[in-house]
Structures are given as structure tokens and as C-alpha cells.
Design goal:
about 80 residues; mainly alpha; 4 helices; 2 strands
């Protein structure tokens, strides 16, 4: 790992699916929206904590997830 590299919190699609499955406040549709958004971040070899936070904040801002969902998702970190 380089000096400026951020550790990857989720390194595969399966990691994301398993984590989202444990967030019981998400509906099926919300879970899919979050998965799709995080899947786009896998390009760089994984999703860092910062990318995760940014994505979850964006989804909340766009009213795609609730505030409760946002809080529960951030607990995954």
C-alpha cells in the first residue's frame, strides 16, 4: 500500500452485497440503488471509506435513501 493510498473497505461486488444485506432498514429497491451506486466505485480496485461516505451522502441528498438508512449504512464503516 502506498503512502497516500486509502484502504479499500469493499473490494468486490459480493462484499457490497453482503454488507447491504445486513442493513435491515433498506427496502429491496433502496438496497439495489445503493448497490448500483457503490458498484460504480469498484473501478479503482475497491471502495474506500471516503468513496463510501461520499456515495451515501449523495444518495441521501438525492432522496434515494432515508436519513435512517444513511445512518445505518455509515455504521458499516
Amino acid at each position: 500500500m502506498g503512502f497516500f493510498s486509502s484502504p479499500k473497505k469493499f473490494s468486490s461486488r459480493n462484499d457490497i452485497k453482503e454488507a447491504l444485506y445486513n442493513v435491515h432498514s433498506l427496502s429491496f429497491e433502496e438496497r439495489q440503488k445503493v448497490f448500483d451506486a457503490l458498484e460504480q466505485e469498484l473501478d479503482g480496485g475497491g471502495v474506500t471509506s471516503e468513496e463510501f461516505k461520499k456515495t451515501i451522502k449523495r444518495l441521501r441528498f438525492e432522496h434515494k435513501i432515508s436519513e435512517i438508512d444513511r445512518d445505518n449504512l455509515l455504521k458499516l464503516l
